[in-house]
Amino acid sequence: MVVADPSNDVSFTNELVRSPSAEIAVVTYSYSDSRDLSSAVVKCLPKKLGGKSWHKGGTDPKAPEHLTVEFIDSNGNHVTTKHIDRNGRAC
């Protein structure tokens, strides 16, 4: 199963920064993972740090630009959290 409908299956901790590029990256990644990934939550930066979805660094200051995404299965259980680049690849 994949994250098929970004408008229903992808949420953002800061909906004000929802973007087509982020939605496409999440859906693209979900097609490459064989696990049951039925929905996703894009973990945006805290509002005091700008609340952005796309960001660099984090726990690794040298990390390239990415999204931090939590994937959830069809039963509502956490599957994995990944850093996803603009091409929909884990980085």
Index terms:
single chain, 91 residues, alpha+beta, four-stranded mixed β-sheet, 22% strand
Mean pLDDT: 91
Q: Report the radius of gyration as a whole number of Å.
A: 12 Å
Major β-sheet strand ordering? 1-2-3-4
Strand content: 15-25%
Shape: globular
Summarize the biggest pleated sheet: 4 strands, mixed
User: What is the H/E order?
Assistant: HEHEEE
What would you call the structural class?
alpha+beta
Tally of individual helices: 2
Helical content stands at 10-25%
The tally of structural domains comes to 1
- Count of DSSP E strands? 4
User: In angstroms, what separates the terminal alpha carbons?
Assistant: 22 Å
Low-confidence stretches: none
Helix and strand arrangement:
Blueprint: H1 6-9, E1 10-12, H2 20-32, E2 39-42, E3 67-72, E4 78-84
Parallel strand pairs: 1-2
Antiparallel strand pairs: 2-3, 3-4
Tell me what you see in this structure.
- The chain is of the alpha+beta class.
- The chain has one domain (6-84).
- The protein is 19% helix and 22% strand.
- A hairpin with a 5-residue loop joins strand 3 (67-72) and strand 4 (78-84).
- The protein is globular, with a radius of gyration of 12 Å.
- The model has no long low-confidence stretch (mean pLDDT 91).
